[in-house]
TrEMBL record:
<keyword id="KW-0067">ATP-binding</keyword>
<keyword id="KW-0436">Ligase</keyword>
<dbReference type="InterPro" id="IPR009080">
    <property type="entry name" value="tRNAsynth_Ia_anticodon-bd"/>
</dbReference>
<dbReference type="InterPro" id="IPR025709">
    <property type="entry name" value="Leu_tRNA-synth_edit"/>
</dbReference>
<feature type="short sequence motif" description="'KMSKS' region">
    <location>
        <begin position="617"/>
        <end position="621"/>
    </location>
</feature>
<dbReference type="InterPro" id="IPR001412">
    <property type="entry name" value="aa-tRNA-synth_I_CS"/>
</dbReference>
<feature type="domain" description="Methionyl/Valyl/Leucyl/Isoleucyl-tRNA synthetase anticodon-binding">
    <location>
        <begin position="686"/>
        <end position="804"/>
    </location>
</feature>
<dbReference type="InterPro" id="IPR015413">
    <property type="entry name" value="Methionyl/Leucyl_tRNA_Synth"/>
</dbReference>
<dbReference type="InterPro" id="IPR013155">
    <property type="entry name" value="M/V/L/I-tRNA-synth_anticd-bd"/>
</dbReference>
<dbReference type="Pfam" id="PF08264">
    <property type="entry name" value="Anticodon_1"/>
</dbReference>
<feature type="domain" description="Aminoacyl-tRNA synthetase class Ia">
    <location>
        <begin position="617"/>
        <end position="656"/>
    </location>
</feature>
<keyword id="KW-0030">Aminoacyl-tRNA synthetase</keyword>
<feature type="domain" description="Leucyl-tRNA synthetase editing">
    <location>
        <begin position="221"/>
        <end position="404"/>
    </location>
</feature>
<keyword id="KW-0648">Protein biosynthesis</keyword>
<dbReference type="Pfam" id="PF13603">
    <property type="entry name" value="tRNA-synt_1_2"/>
</dbReference>
<dbReference type="Pfam" id="PF00133">
    <property type="entry name" value="tRNA-synt_1"/>
</dbReference>
<feature type="short sequence motif" description="'HIGH' region">
    <location>
        <begin position="42"/>
        <end position="52"/>
    </location>
</feature>
RNA sequence: GCGGGCGUGGCGGAAUGGUAGACGCAGCGGACUUAAAAUCCGCUUGGGGUUCCCAGUGCGGGUUCGAGUCCCGCCGCCCGCACCA
């Protein structure tokens, strides 16, 4: 073996061998236990970033480990290739979105190959190709046939200058990102998927996701948001229509001091018909964007219509307001305002001088207690509420619902926060929605034999808006039903649709249908899915929905796509900056422009110091990005892979550092030197090393299966140090060989290179080392001896030493006697093999 | 605003309610070397009267023989909020 490991030659050599021997191609016909390991596929932005490297390294270690433990592994890769950045590139650089995307894919694929990932490239797919999105169109038509697709009006962000629809991220401080115009809400007829039909199923299904993080399950449950409440009608006093409201807190009905309706509500519209002021207020509500965060942080505004309704119990007059915080989409578009126990209502009432009453108190004696500047939404006992007084919130809810139902003015109702999924996008670079609009026949699905509806290539991006709409020929077709001239739908599908079934297409890729049912039965569900926490709700919920929808219409037999989910943290980096003297703004520098000392940093260009800023998520604007390619070129793939796994727990953020990658590089070389010391001919036994080796193998296996790579890494460091210090023996050589196998999933190139002199064939195809269970058990344990809960001494005893003996040994300790200082021992707590606690 | 999460040495972190700081990074000291790099050895939470003692896991309370871990209330940071992916 050479003196140093040289990744520049070894990396490519082994990558070629793996390719040529198709080591990582999944065999559909295999009889081995199967394991489908999947990382969220990337958007082809042009370059792999460190976050991708982290994501794919984790999946790769698991995939390689699974292969070593006898599994047939499916570990595929593809491209989430539709989306806005391609259109932005087209507008900025004049390139075609398709050309730009495909070039990016080629570059990023080469980058992934340089990292040595054990991927089955034979199943590669890109969602922007007709052989993918054509099948998606077919599935969309199937869902349509099953009644799960419909059209309705819905609000979008409208840029009145560019005359175009804006994505939420294109709205900055209420203005269009390019034009700077104040954004308005505008109604458009759009396509929707009936995800709400699955609300109950999706909610119940969460319970069965045993291997999902609790936090993600909780977020999904809250997002679906099942709530039981009262839907009821307020009788009008000085007008004719009843107002139907929905409340999740009917218990607080005696605290109602007003009724508020959404700007789009029929009552609001009726009032506006002969009130210019009301019209102006409704127009005001149309200003601004459509996001929930924007709506909820906006100042609470209202308009008193002058209408009054009658309180169902007290008979009191309640004023009817139009309010900007009431949503037409949720419940009935009208609410009863209970300022004492709802924060929005509280702010609203404070602003407009409406009464604020207390109807819930922690203690009945506090019925007259004032509010401390905010609403009290918590639990308690009903007060000032007639027949409800003294009841708990839960009981009072039931009581009010029962009364309303028996008196016939309302009924208990389950309402979901989850809304149907709007999939229409007024954009070019996405899957065309396969429908045709005919004046005579209405909305007509494109016949399946005419799929795919292919995106035209000859489009221009000189003007804002969707180029499909202004394309000279593309949208003009004959109606499939009546044959008369008609037009194609020009909306394309949300890219979340593309990512809602790609994991099914990986199992098999027939040309004539989206997937093969048997292949899905074999491979799905994905055994381990890995991706960012930012996808905790939307992508994962949509993928779950899509899978259930396909199961419901009888196309597949699996209901939940991902058996285990892991959400990894971001990769962060220090920032380097100077404050610009002229305008006081920070000027950022890239890590490559910096020379980093122990606690300081200076700019290479002028040698003067720069400030080391906060460690934050890598972003172009802060220039704190590092290029994986440059790291691979300097240190090789294994060092960067090792860095991704070391130190930080995978679910937390990982701070990148030059020093850290240097340390990984040194460890690569340290292992190389250790592997060179392997000698099959050595003899002699070293029990301590044998034990340490087997304990490490067992622990590392456990850690990898739990994706606790940082712990596995620490174990490997410990074993390495122990083996380095040990005298030559057969045990030591066996341990060296074991270390090689343990690091093989993490540093596959180094492992292959060393294995080529130590082992047979390829280490990528080798078996995980076996352990002797007898060696895993320690025969001696260290016991903590505490006095009043404070550590005073430790005892080393045989494992399983009896309670009485431990007590005696503890009392015999000088240190314990000194700590007791003559005090009488009142109680002794003994945890066998753990500790003795003397309570004085 | 709403929902979710996180907070432990100079830094990343470890710790089934049971010896806080494993392991790594940085730093300091030493060995080797003409010298440097590489490598190896040692030290490294703070304070003190340094074989020992005290304090200590964001802040304030609580439960427990015992709390980094469980409960309540704060503070700070991060993620998501339905057209970014």
């Amino acid at each position: 073996m050479t003196e140093r490991f040289d990744p520049a030659t070894a990396d490519t050599r082994w990558q070629r061998v793996w390719d040529e021997r198709a080591c990582f191609t999944a065999d559909d016909a295999s009889t081995k236990p199967r394991s489908y390991v999947l990382e969220m596929f990337p958007y082809p932005s042009g370059r792999i970033h460190i976050g991708h490297v982290r994501n794919y390294t984790m999946g790769d270690v698991l995939a390689r480990y699974k292969r070593m433990t006898g599994h047939e592994v499916l570990h595929p890769m593809g491209w989430d290739a539709f989306g806005m950045p391609a259109e932005n590139a087209a507008m900025e650089k004049g390139v075609h979105p398709g050309g730009w995307t495909r070039e990016n894919i080629a570059n990023m694929k080469a980058q992934l190959k340089r990292l040595g990932f054990a991927l089955d490239w034979s199943r590669e797919l890109a969602t922007c190709e007709p052989d993918y999105y054509g099948h998606e169109q077919a599935l969309f038509l199937d869902l349509y046939a099953a009644g799960l697709v419909y059209r309705k009006e819905s609000s979008v962000n409208w840029d009145p200058i560019d005359q175009t629809v804006l994505a939420n991220e294109q709205v900055i401080d209420g203005r269009g990102w390019r034009s700077g115009a104040l954004v308005e809400k505008r109604k458009l007829s759009q396509w929707f998927l009936k995800i709400t039909d699955f609300a109950e199923e999706l909610l119940e299904g969460v319970q069965g996701l045993e291997h999902w993080p609790d936090k993600v399950k909780l977020m999904q449950e809250n997002w679906i948001g099942k709530s039981r409440g009262l839907q009821f009608r307020f009788k009008p006093i000085n007008f004719f229509d009843e107002i139907e409201v929905y409340s999740t807190r009917p218990d607080t009905i005696f605290g109602a001091s007003f009724v508020a309706v959404a700007a789009e509500h029929p009552v609001a519209q009726a009032v506006a018909a002969d009130s210019a002021e009301a019209q102006a207020f409704i127009a005001l509500c149309k200003q601004g964007g459509t996001t929930a965060a924007e709506l909820e942080t906006a100042e609470k505004l209202g308009f008193d219509t002058g209408l009054k309704v009658k309180h169902p119990f007290t008979g009191a007059d309640l004023p009817v307001w139009i309010a900007n915080f009431v949503l037409m989409d949720y419940g009935t578009g009208a609410v009863m305002g209970v300022p004492g126990h709802d924060q929005r209502d509280f702010e609203f009432s404070t602003k407009y001088g409406l009464p604020i009453a207390r109807v819930v108190a922690t203690d009945p004696a506090d019925a007259g207690a004032p509010f401390q500047g905010e609403a009290e939404a918590g639990d308690g006992v009903l007060v000032n509420s007639d027949f409800l007084n003294g009841q708990s919130v839960t009981d009072a809810k039931a009581a009010v619902i029962a009364r309303a139902e028996s008196e016939g003015w309302g009924e208990g109702k389950t309402v979901w926060r989850l809304r149907d999924w709007g999939v229409s996008r007024q954009r070019y670079w996405g899957t065309p929605i396969p429908f045709i609009h005919c004046e005579a026949c209405g909305v007509v699905p494109v016949p399946k034999d005419q799929l795919p509806v292919v995106l035209p290539e000859d489009v221009d991006f000189q003007t804002p808006g969707n180029p499909l709409v202004r394309h000279a020929t593309w949208k003009y077709v004959d109606c499939p039903q009546c044959g008369k001239p008609a037009v194609r739908e020009t909306d394309t599908l949300d890219t979340f649709v593309d990512s809602s079934w790609y994991f099914l297409r990986f199992a098999s890729q027939p040309a004539d249908k989206p997937f093969d049912r048997e292949a899905i039965a074999k491979w799905l569900p994905v055994e381990q899915y890995i991706g960012g926490i930012e996808h905790a709700i939307l992508h994962l919920l949509y993928a779950r929905f899509w899978t259930r929808a396909l199961a419901r219409i009888g196309m597949i037999d699996v209901k939940e796509p991902f058996a285990s989910l892991f959400t990894q943290g971001m990769v962060t980096h220090e920032t380097y900056l100077r404050i610009d003297n002229a305008n006081g703004q920070p000027v950022y520098f890239a890590p490559t422009e910096i020379e980093r000392g122990g606690e300081s940093a200076k700019l290479k260009a002028d040698g003067a110091p720069v400030e080391i800023g906060r460690v934050i998520k890598m972003s172009k604007s802060k220039k704190n990005v590092v290029d994986p390619d440059a790291i691979v070129a300097t240190y090789g793939a294994d060092a960067i892979r090792w860095f991704m796994l070391s130190d930080s727990p995978p679910e937390r953020d990982l701070p990148w550092s030059e020093a850290g990658i240097e340390g990984c590089w040194r460890f690569v070389q340290r292992l190389w030197r250790l592997f060179a010391q392997f000698d099959a001919a050595t003899t002699g036994e070293d029990k301590a090393i044998d034990r340490k080796r087997d304990q490490t193998v067992a622990a590392v296996a456990q850690d990898i299966e739990a994706l606790s790579f940082n712990k596995a890494v620490a174990r490997i460091y410990e074993l390495t140090s122990a083996v380095e210090k040990a005298q030559p023996s057969a045990s030591r050589s066996a341990a060296i060989r074991t270390i090689l196998l343990l690091v093989a999933p993490m540093m596959p190139h180094l492992a292959e290179e060393a294995w080529s002199t130590i082992g047979d064939d390829l280490v990528s195809l080798a078996a995980w080392p076996a352990v002797d269970p007898a060696l895993l058990v320690e025969d001696e344990v260290t016991i903590a001896v505490q006095v009043k809960g404070k550590l005073r001494d430790t005892l080393t005893v045989a494992k399983g030493t009896a309670k009485e003996e431990l007590e005696a040994l503890a009392l015999a300790s000088d240190k314990v006697q000194r700590a007791l200082d003559g005090a009488e021992v009142r109680k002794i707590i003994v945890v066998p093999d753990r500790l003795v606690n003397l309570v004085a």
